[in-house]
Amino acid sequence: MLQEPVEMQIINGAPLEVQWNDAHHAQGVNGREWLPEHPVDALVLTERVPLDPAMEYHDTLGYAARWVALARQSNPAVRPYLYQTWDYIEAGPTGPWRDRILADLPKWQAIVDHVNMDLPQGAEPMRLIPVGLGMVRLHDAASAGEVPGATSIRDFFRDDIHPTEAGGFYYIAMIHYAALTGKSPVGLTNQIPGGGGPYPRVPKEQAEVLQQLAWQTVQEFAGH
């Protein structure tokens, strides 16, 4: 799956509403035009953070439903997903950041539940990719000294919100792999492809732990 073709529409920092209305200005494909003509197996959406103002002022629920309906035009059996992210890490202790991720989970789930209202016959329901919960698990494991080469969640971020190209992106990819395939990422390669070429290799011992944490996250969420 790590080598499967992927198309993206990117407007950095934009809510789903802007992604919809300004799709012609996006990096990558114009999803408004592309999706109805190109059936995809899976559609992954996310929303801008902080989540509260995005939901209040940019109709997250409505635009998430629009994007999924658009993808179903070319493939009624498309599997839609919502990528749960995280908020900014402030200076000082990282515990409040961890707790905000948990507090925001019902809001992410509310988006999924709205999209799944009045599900068309035979359509796949939207599912959550619990990357935010994965960050909570990684936060706790790193703090406990259980992640080789890391002592803090900050070791996986290059600033207050963007992950590192090595361990951070790698961990996110492992969670996506587990959520989209239902398979364990344990045993996969320790280097993933990127748009501009492969990302840096993750040290083997660290990659193994990240794979395990990713699989634990997805399994636990699926059984919640």
UniProtKB/TrEMBL annotation:
UniProt GO molecular function: hydrolase activity, acting on ester bonds
Origin: domain of life: Bacteria
Gene3D superfamilies on file: SGNH hydrolase
Entry protein name: Uncharacterized protein
